[in-house]
Amino acid sequence: DHRDLHSFPTRRSSDLIPASKLKAYLEEKLDALVGKYDCIEGRRGKGFMQGLVLKDITPGEIVNKGIEKGILMLTAGVNVLRFLPPLVITKEDIDKMFVEGETLYLK
Fold first, then answer.
1. pTM given for the model
2. What CA–CA distance (Å, rounded) separates 40 from 87?
């Protein structure tokens, strides 16, 4: 029945940033972390599914600290911290994730 349908807010296409540009922006931000922290060995992934390869720290520690800050991440294997943001993420969301989350890598 059409009365059960809900309307969702819409965005104009001119307001949207192409996912390919945001993917590159996310990769750039993750690569900056690789160069900044000794506990991060590298970045790997495709598209928005990205991971940071960690050393001398378990990804579970960072995931738990992230939850306390409202940042959801996953582990992948024994040494990879996985990011899988939604396709509707904005540049501002990515920036906020890095501002709030950067302290997670500090021992």
1. 0.77
2. 25
In whole angstroms, give the CA distance from residue 62 to residue 80: 10
Per-residue HEC secondary structure of the chain comes to CHHHCCCCCCCCHHHCCCHHHHHHHHHHHHHHHHHHCCCEEEEEEECCEEEEEECCCCHHHHHHHHHHCCCCCEEECCCEEEECCCCCCCHHHHHHHHHHHHHHHCC
For residue range 56-76, what is the model confidence (pLDDT) as tens digits? 888 998 898 888 888 888 999
Q: Residues 6 or more apart from 66 whose CB is under 8 A from it?
A: 72, 73, 101, 104
